Amino acid sequence: MTTREPQEIARVAAATGAKKTHRTWDKVLVSAFLAGAYIAFGGLVAIAVSSGLDPDTWGTLPTLFTGAVFTLGLVLVLIAGSDLATGNMALVPLGAMRGKLGVGDVAKNLSLVLLGNLLGALLVAYFLAVQTGVIGSSGAGGNAGLTYERLSGIAEGKALGESAWQTFLRAVGCNWLVCLAVWMSLAAKDVAGKILAIFFPIMAFVAMGFDHVVANMFFLPAAIFAGVPDVGWGETGLNWLLAGAGNLVGAVVFVSTSYWYLFLRDQPEEPAPAEVPSAERA
Q1: Is the pTM of this model over 0.85?
Q2: What is the DSSP string of the chain?
């Protein structure tokens, strides 16, 4: 397995972040749409495999199962190649810190990517989760009823069970880990290495109940579409705002700025590696 050293990871990350702003808006939007759908697929399979596991019997193991399979989402994003806002929150600002682009470029990219992620997540939530019957309705029997109850628990916990401060802090921790997964995936030059780098940080943030704004673009609308009581668009919008702000802080402060300071701040600009593989678009 060939790997990059931390200093080289930082240079590749900065070059990748800069390249993300050099595409036409339509390509960014389509790429972001795919990433939103991929994260939603991860959320949907996480609900499916953890439904029906009674905490009185299983304790906290359902959260471990949820986190383990949710990693599918970021694996699809990084290996297939697409734009996820939470990963861009680290890579694109890092490109700006290296003087490769401006603050306006960062804001434009993140806004467009968030929009695309939302559209992709909503499509999966409505058509592939609820309309297919994978997520059932209140009172439904069998697997559909179990997935409804599992989704209800997740959505109510995020929309109603956390204070604003808790949501923000959980989002900071979430994207610190997510961006570390993206960062470490840049170290590997083969698919297996990238998947291994992704698995543990993503499993950890889900198992701890942290808040990922794009994942919540799936969980909360899916709950609304499925008719989960007391979860509405007002609570959903507030969650997205707080989670997005916390995710941005986690990415910029604890990943971009930290590694810029350690590896790039005092270093002259060096030629980037000959290519930045498509699998490293996060």
Answers
A1: yes
A2: --B--HHHHHHHHHHHHHHTTSS-HHHHHHHHHHHHHHHHHHHHHHHHHHTT--HHHHTTHHHHHHHHHHHHHHHIIIIII---HHHHHHHHHHHHHTTSS-HHHHHHHHHHHHHHHHHHHHHIIIIIIITTSSS--TT--HHHHHHHHHHHHHHHHHHTSS-HHHHHHHHHHHHHHHHHHHHHHTTBSSHHHHHHHHHHHHHHHHHTT---HHHHHHHHHHHHHHT-TT--HHHHHHHHHHHHHHHHHHHIIIIIIHHIIIIITTSPP-PPPS---GGG--
